[in-house]
């Protein structure tokens, strides 16, 4: 996963401030909370929610569809 400070998903262009496609899990912390989400393109994101607002601090790449370890699924 790579850190991000962008305002849109680098994989599909979905705005970071928009509602995520899917909420995977939520965890409360002393400072606010952490929300794991999945973008419409499949990218897993870690969102931190605290007094400063919401920001994406890490995100993965979308999963390759139809392949596994570089080999087509059969």
Structural commentary:
It is a single chain. This protein has strands at residues 22-29, 32-38, 44-50, 53-59, 67-68, 71-72. It has a domain at 22-62. It is built from no helices and 6 strands. The strands form 2 sheets. A 4-stranded antiparallel beta sheet has the order 1-2-3-4, with no helix packed on it. The chain is mainly beta. The model has no long low-confidence stretch (mean pLDDT 81). Helix content is 0%, strand content 45%.
Strand content: 35-45%
The main sheet comes to:
4 strands, antiparallel
Instruction: Give the helix tally.
Output: 0
Instruction: Give the spatial strand order of the biggest sheet.
Output: 1-2-3-4
Fraction in helix: under 10%
Q: N-to-C terminal Cα separation, in Å?
A: 28 Å
Low confidence ranges: none
Mean pLDDT: 81
> Based on CA inertia axes, which overall geometry fits?
globular
Kindly name the structural category: mainly beta
Order of helices and strands: EEEEEE
User: Roughly how many Å is the radius of gyration?
Assistant: 14 Å
Total E-strand runs: 6
User: Assembly state here?
Assistant: single chain
Features:
mainly beta; 0% helix; 4-stranded antiparallel sheet; two-stranded antiparallel sheet; 74 residues; single chain; globular
């Amino acid at each position: 996963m790579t850190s991000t400070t962008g305002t849109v998903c680098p994989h599909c262009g979905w705005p970071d401030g928009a509602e995520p496609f899917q909420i995977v899990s939520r965890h409360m912390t002393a400072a606010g909370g952490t929300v794991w989400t999945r973008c419409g393109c499949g990218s897993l994101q870690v969102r931190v929610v605290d007094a400063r607002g919401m920001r994406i601090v890490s995100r993965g790449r979308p999963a390759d569809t139809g392949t596994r370890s570089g080999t087509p699924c059969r």
